[in-house]
Amino acid sequence: MRKLVVLSFMTLDGVMQAPGGSKEDTSDGFKYGGWSFPFFDEFMGNEMGIQMGHPFDLLLGRKTYEIFAAYWPHADTENDPGAKALNNATKYVVTNSLVKAGWNNSLIIKGDVPGEIRKLKEKDGLEIQVHGSGNLIQTLWKHNLVDELWLKTFPVVVGSGKRLFAYDSFAGGFEPIESKTSPAGVIIANYRRKGEVRTGSFA
User: Cα(55)–Cα(17) distance, rounded to whole angstroms?
Assistant: First the structure.
């Protein structure tokens, strides 16, 4: 069984929309695009290098795929290990609108998306990483397809926007794997799915 990992940047109030730039995703009038940039330092670069410094496959929603495909094929693969990893990865793009995915090693998933992702997980192969892809992530939560969550929580509140946990009916337990804090105050924490929500009482 292949491990499916969601890697996400998130604000303190749970927003994952457009962390990387002002024009990344302005849907619903979102005006704080690029909120992660002021906190991105050498420490964060090293952490991303660790998490992406091994072979993996990518699972992406259509919008994130198009953002990545417009940038990463032209990035400096000699000096940016993340660029090399992303370009070399097999990329599975979930879409009902794209007829062809032009970025190298790209394959389209449509139709029974949860079923197709389960088939991917059941095959032998590399770890499957999900970056961005907010709408796709809600489908993954809904069908309990996430094995681990590698989360970076930034010390900023933006008030509104697309949230990492926007699917209201999802509930589940997680166990921490590791955590650390960057000099700029970004909390890097990795979690593994662990069953259902446990409850109790202090009374």
Answer: 26
